[in-house]
Amino acid sequence: MEKRAAILSAAKALFIRNAFAGTSMDAIAADAGVSKLTVYSHFGDKDNLFREVIRSRIQDLLPEETYFFDPQADIEETLLRVALTHARLDCNAETVGTFRAILSDCRQGNPRYGKLIWEEGAMRTHGLMERLLQQAVDAGKLDIDDVPHASVQFITLIKGNLMMRQMFGCTECPESYAREIETTARAGVKMFLRAYLPR
């Protein structure tokens, strides 16, 4: 397990820094302090290793508990918990660095790597968000006809244009950017509730 963790840690750093195409299994093995054979024995091939890196990273940062629904809790507080966790993660420099690496590979004709991060990242988190919203609807906390569509709306509202600004390097002051992330997430939750609270 220690070797597996070391390989995942090395792969995370190298994929972010060099993108998929620029990262070799030799480099991952060297950084992890293991043989290349050990890397292959744990993960099979580079595609599988990349998928595991994405899955591990997202589960570390957005564990399933983030989307826990308590019918006794205030729905605004529940949504705010999710919103702040999501927005802070999606808009931070490391996450955006990962997206840049994926986009670099897609431009070089490797769209399957973008598909991997979509499946392990966005599809998973949207599924968990849909489950939470459906539970809230079933408990009478929200009134939503199209839960999958509302899930996309929620994720979009809480980030605004902040992730794109980070993508283009337009976040000169980290302190004010962090405040904007929180303000945008809170405003997004309020707007979402204005649309979906039971009348």
UniProtKB/TrEMBL annotation:
Residues 1-61 form the HTH tetR-type domain. Keywords: DNA-binding, Signal. SUPFAM superfamilies: Homeodomain-like, Tetracyclin repressor-like, C-terminal domain. Residues 1-21 form the signal peptide. Gene3D superfamilies: Homeodomain-like (1.10.10.60), Tetracycline Repressor, domain 2 (1.10.357.10). Pfam families: TetR_C_7, TetR_N. PROSITE patterns: HTH_TETR_2 (PS50977). It comes from the Bacteria. Residues 24-43 bind DNA. This is TetR/AcrR family transcriptional regulator. The lineage of its organism: Bacteria, Pseudomonadati, Pseudomonadota, Gammaproteobacteria, Lysobacterales.
